[in-house]
Write a structure and sequence with these properties.
This protein has 278 residues and is α/β, with parallel strands linked by helices. The chain has 9 helices and 13 strands. Helix 2 (47-62) packs across helix 8. Residues 1-30 have low confidence and may be disordered. Belongs to the nlpA lipoprotein family. InterPro entries: Lipoprotein_NlpA (IPR004872). It is found in: Membrane. Keywords: Lipoprotein, Membrane, Palmitate, Signal.
C-alpha cells in the first residue's frame, strides 16, 4: 500500500536502532543544540552515494576547513528527517525537493534545503528483458510506494511511451491516474528500499539511484530507461531544520560539498550514475 510513512518492520527497527545509538551517544557524539555550534556536525545520510560523498569530505577536506564532521547512516527515507527535526542530528543529506515538500506537509516538520549537490537518475531495470519495449502484456512492474517517488516512477514510464498519464497529473500520481496502458502493465507498490531486491520477483522495477548503486547496479549502463538530468527537480541536497541555515558548521559543509574536489570525486566514482548539480 502506498504510504509515505509506512516502513517494513525490519527497516523501521533498523532505523530505530541506528537512531537510538545516535541519541544515546556521549556528549561529544550527539547533535548540538541550535544555539551551540561548538560541537561536531552530525549529518544523517543514505549509505550510497550520500554517506560516501560525506566520507570523502570528512577524510580529505573537513579537517583543513576546521570542520568536525560525523556521518550517521540510515537505510530509510523517514528517520533522517524526523531526527533532524528533533535535533538528534544537525542535518541530513538524502532527499529532493518534491519529497521534502510532501514530507513537511504530511509530517508537520520544518526541514529546509541548504545546497543542492547531485542528481541520481531514476531508472527502470529488469532481470528478464533487455529492452523496455520487450516487456510482455500484463508484465508486473515494481514502483516505490511513497507518494513522490511513485509519481516520479510513473512519469519516467510515461516519458518513455510505456504508459500515458492524465493531463495535469503532478507529484502525487498513482496507477489510478494512468489514462492509457497499452501493455496492460500491472504495478506492485513496494518500499523504495526494496525495489532493487524485488527484481527477481517482478518483470521490471523502477529503482531510485542510490538503491540501485547499493545493489551493485550501474544505472548509466544497465537501466532500460533512465531519467533525464535536464531541468530535473530531483537534485539531492543538504538540509537542516529551519533556523539552522546560518550554523557556521553547516555553511562550511555546504561549501565543501560544492567544491571542485567533490565534483571530481562524484564524476570519477559514479561514472554518470550520479551527476553533480553544481
Amino acid at each position: 500500500m502506498r504510504n509515505t510513512a509506512k516502513l517494513s518492520t525490519a527497516v523501521l527497527a533498523a532505523g530505530a536502532l541506528t537512531f537510538g545509538l545516535t541519541a544515546c551517544g556521549s556528549g561529544t557524539d550527539s547533535a548540538s543544540s541550535s544555539s551551540d555550534y561548538s560541537g561536531p556536525l552530525i549529518v544523517a545520510a543514505s549509505p550510497t552515494p550520500h554517506a560516501e560523498i560525506l566520507d570523502f569530505v570528512k577524510k580529505n577536506l573537513a579537517k583543513k576547513a576546521g570542520l568536525d564532521l560525523r556521518v550517521k547512516e540510515f537505510q530509510d527515507y523517514i528517520v533522517p528527517n524526523t531526527a533532524t527535526e528533533d535535533g538528534s542530528v544537525d542535518a541530513n543529506y538524502f532527499q529532493n525537493q518534491p519529497y521534502l515538500d510532501d514530507f513537511n506537509k504530511k509530517r508537520g516538520t520544518h526541514i529546509v534545503p541548504v545546497v543542492t549537490v547531485h542528481l541520481e537518475p531514476l531508472g527502470l531495470y529488469s532481470h528478464k528483458v533487455k529492452k523496455a519495449d520487450a516487456l510482455k502484456s500484463g508484465a508486473t512492474v515494481a514502483v516505490p510506494n511513497d507518494a513522490v517517488n511513485e509519481a516520479r516512477a510513473l512519469k519516467l514510464l510515461a516519458a518513455n511511451g510505456l504508459i500515458t498519464l492524465k493531463d495535469g497529473v503532478g507529484n502525487e500520481a498513482t496507477p489510478q491516474d494512468i489514462s492509457k496502458n497499452p501493455k496492460n502493465l500491472k504495478f506492485k507498490e513496494v518500499e523504495a528500499a526494496q525495489t532493487a531486491r524485488s527484481l527477481d520477483d517482478v518483470d521490471a522495477a523502477v529503482v531510485n539511484g542510490n538503491y540501485a548503486i547499493s545493489a551493485g547496479i550501474k544505472p548509466a549502463k544497465e537501466a532500460l530507461v533512465l531519467e533525464s538530468a535536464k531541468n530535473s527537480p530531483y537534485g539531492n541536497f543538504l538540509a537542516v531544520k529551519k533556523g539552522n541555515e546560518k550554523d557556521p558548521r553547516v555553511k562550511k559543509l555546504a561549501k565543501l560539498l560544492t567544491s571542485p574536489e567533490v565534483k571530481k570525486f562524484i564524476e570519477d566514482k559514479y561514472q554518470g550514475s550520479v551527476i553533480p548539480s553544481f
